[in-house]
Design a protein that fits this description.
Largest sheet: none
Number of strands: 0
Number of domains: 1
Strand content: under 5%
Shape: elongated
Radius of gyration: 17 Å
Structural class: mainly alpha
Number of helices: 3
Helix content: 55-70%
Order of helices and strands: HHH
Length: 68
């Protein structure tokens, strides 16, 4: 999908720097994708902390071992 957006040049330059992309479009897509992933993880963590997943099948140790 193509869209037209206005982004401050300094912000776009930083987005390109941090994503490692040389072109504007891929940099914005990568930044938006990363933002969504982080928000989903944050939302999931909040739900776990609120006890909404009491019957989650893995223990904390099992979850932490997945990160290695």
């Amino acid at each position: 999908m193509r869209i037209t957006i206005d982004i401050d040049e300094k912000i776009l330059a930083e987005v390109m720097k941090f994503t490692g992309e040389d072109k504007k479009g891929p940099a914005v897509v990568k930044a938006a994708t990363d933002f969504l992933k982080r928000k989903k993880v944050s939302d999931y963590a909040r739900r776990v902390m609120e006890g909404q997943f009491e019957d989650y099948p893995l223990t904390n140790e099992e979850i932490e071992s997945c990160d290695r």
